[in-house]
Amino acid sequence: TASIFINPLQFNDASDFKNYPKSIDNDIALLSKHGCDSVFIPNSSILEDIKEIKAPDTALYLCGVNRPGHFDGVLTIVNKLFELTKPTRAFFGKKDFQQLTLIKNFVKENNLPIEIISVDTVRELNGLAMSSRNNRLSEPDRKKASKLYKTLSSIKANSNNLSHEMIKYHKDDLTEQGFDVDYLSVCNPNSLKDLKNFNLKPMLVAIAASIGGIRLIDNILID
Question: What is the 3-state secondary structure (H, E, C) of the chain?
């Protein structure tokens, strides 16, 4: 079973919600092709009298800095979907690493009988992490967006010599190439706090950047 719901609670920008790609028919066709037996597609009535969940401090870093309330909305709707569908296992992608971390911790802290399974990021041939938002990229920007994963891979390849200067170099390089960089952070994969000591492993290198007004995220784990 899969569930599809484009959740207005997690958009702190109304225009972002309005413009977010909605491709239900295509999603259903893809799910059917890959052997999915049933799809739960609730309408907006799912939000009526919904129990609001306040996200913990882990939500204050990375995407949470410039998207206040985003992860409150994520946990609120995920909790509701769990209540309605009662899964024994639920799958969440590593591309949204912060979301995955918050959901894992939420399930653990509330003793929910659900196994959260982390799914490796699926990439396009040029390395760009697959996302619904990619559909809104122009062809030139789609090619340019592959630079995000190349940047993360370069940082990982040089992880033994990692420095704040190197991170700044990569961030400035992306800005020069037309990206609006929200963050490029090296952080603890559990707390998501920025690391001051780059010799500590494991570490997560996470990025959020916009190209052509389309916000993209990606990350790479160094262990």
Answer: CEECCCCHHHCCCHHHHHHCCCCHHHHHHHHHHCCCCCEECCCHHHHCCCCCCCCCHHHHCCHHHHCCCHHHHHHHHHHHHHHHHCCCEEEEEHHHHHHHHHHHHHHHHCCCCCEEEEECCCECCCCCECCHHHHHCCHHHHHHCCHHHHHHHHHHHCHHHCCHHHHHHHHHHHHHCCCEEEEEEEECCCCCCECCCCCCCCEEEEEEEEECCEEEEEEEEEC
